[in-house]
Specification:
Blueprint lengths: L3 E5 L3 H12 L3 E6 L5 H9 L4 E3 L4 H5 L3 E4 L8 H8 L4 E2 L1 H7 L5 E6 L4 H14 L4 E5 L5 H7 L4 E5 L2 H5 L8 E4 L14 H9 L10 E5 L3 H6 L8 E6 L7 E5 L2 E6 L2 E6 L8 H16 L4 H10 L8 E6 L2 E5 L6 H9 L5 E5 L9 H10 E7 L4 H7 L4 E5 L2 H11 L5 E4 L12 H13 L2
Length: 445
């Protein structure tokens, strides 16, 4: 009998899962509680996949053999509760794609901050070395859609905690856990431990033939690293101590040692600047070494990499004031990393939807580097309370006003940094939309 696969959520991952399910002979049905983007609607129609938007008959969902849930849908969602109560198995798109990837290899990257940059850099290393690979997951293309349309022998996948929550058998050949800081606690009953457990799921199915690359300097990771099976090949990385296998930075030199192959390079050769990016580059270099990529190719890739849009992206120099777009900083730790790398007096644009932020984490850096804060959000009280006593705090409610106010507060030689530390859903569709509106506003100064 044909298995019925119901997809909850019709975004990039949901539509990818639907297309893969259809290709593999499932009876597929997709439901989205809001409305689908026109492009996704067209894809489903041309593939002959039935779908519903906003409302649906219960039986169409509860007749599923299995449900693929989009990562953005929380467990407390009414449909998820009904599906769980009916005893129907729930998986994520990453799990479905994994089932049908064949003998392809996977490098999977997770962490609270820097995972997109690290993932993109690993992909750049693999491409520079001539490997046939795809960039998938939380960045770029849906993993499932890639498996349908253009399967590759290697996938470089950025995996969020929400995606890890819905895996069962997913097993990366190389797993990277680059850091863990408090984030998304609203999805984890405000318990940090639940979020930590979620991140460590990246290694839960790994075996003795797999690699686990992790940050030895991250206290949270080190307090929980015993969750990882001892037989997995562990490759630590550190800036504080030398390691036998893995990677470390000492006296401005990166040392990589994997499977007896050693490599050194100067941190001054890294295309990515800032201390946090030294960790990202080290992680990517160690991952490249597990793929038996030649040393000169790793070096070349690390030197030629261009940073991502919306991640410490230099937008423009306007009358001596530099504008930097770090819209992808959706939590306080990301903003900490951004401020840590700033060398000019900074006007900081902060704000949006607060996910339970603790601004005390950046208070010292703000005192040291920031001359004024411009709030970009509907509710800015928490930011005003945290910083208003020390520096000037101005409230705005659009990217255009925020840019204008920042420019007025800045002088020649300063920088204006959009690094909001918050989600963007109050005024923008997503962080990309926020970053694009910021860049447009800078251009029209």
């Amino acid at each position: 009998m044909q298995k019925r696969l119901v997809i909850l959520g019709g975004g990039e991952s949901g539509v990818g899962a639907a297309l893969l399910g259809k290709q593999k002979g499932y009876d597929v049905f997709l439901f989205d509680e809001s409305s689908l983007k026109e492009g996704y609607r067209a894809e489903l129609k041309s593939a002959g996949i039935p779908f519903a938007e906003a409302e649906v008959e219960e039986q169409l969902i509860l007749s599923a053999t299995e449900v693929v849930k989009s990562p953005g849908i929380p467990e407390k969602n009414a449909w998820v509760k009904k599906i769980r109560a009916a005893g129907i198995p729930v998986i994520g798109e990453i799990e479905l794609a994994y089932r049908y990837k064949g003998d392809s290899r996977i490098i999977a990257i997770t962490g609270s901050n820097g995972k997109s940059t690290t993932t993109a850099l690993i992909y750049h290393i693999c491409r520079t070395a001539g490997l046939d690979c795809a960039l998938v997951g939380n960045i770029g293309y849906s993993f499932a859609k890639q498996v349908v349309e253009d399967p590759k022998p290697l996938y470089v996948a950025e995996i969020s905690s929400f995606q890890l929550d819905d895996i069962v058998t997913f097993r990366p050949d190389v797993a990277l856990l680059i850091n863990i800081t408090e984030d998304h606690l609203d999805r984890y009953d405000y318990k940090f431990e639940n979020y930590i457990n979620s991140k460590f799921r990246i290694a839960q199915n790994q075996t003795s033939s797999d690699y686990f690359i992790y940050n030895l300097d991250d206290e949270v990771i080190m307090n929980h690293v015993n969750k990882v099976q001892n037989n997995i090949k562990k490759l630590p990385m550190s800036m504080k101590q030398k390691v036998e296998e893995g990677g470390y930075i000492n006296e401005n030199e990166l040392h990589i040692n994997v499977n007896g192959e050693q490599q050194q390079m100067s941190i001054y050769d890294f295309a990515l600047k800032g201390k946090h990016n030294q960790y990202n580059t080290m992680a990517a270099g160690v991952a490249g070494a597990t793929m038996d990529i030649r040393k000169n190719k790793i070096r070349e890739a690390v030197q030629t990499f261009q940073s991502l849009e919306h991640r410490m992206e230099s937008v423009s120099l306007v009358r001596g004031v530099e504008f930097i777009n770090d819209s992808k900083a959706t939590n306080v730790n990301s903003t900490w990393y951004a401020l840590e790398s700033m060398t000019k007096p900074t006007v900081l644009i902060l704000g949006g939807v607060d996910k339970g932020n603790d601004y005390s984490l950046i208070q010292e850096l703000v005192k040291e580097k920031v001359k004024a804060i411009v709030c970009l959000g509907i509710d800015n009280k928490k930011i005003e309370d945290a910083f208003g006593a020390d520096i000037k705090v101005v409230s705005t409610a659009s990217a255009e006003r925020a840019v204008q106010a920042s420019f007025e507060l800045a002088t020649v030689g300063d920088a204006v940094l959009l690094s909001p530390a918050c989600a963007s859903f109050d005024l923008f569709k997503n962080y990309e939309d926020r970053g694009k509106q910021f860049k447009e506003a800078v251009k029209s100064l």
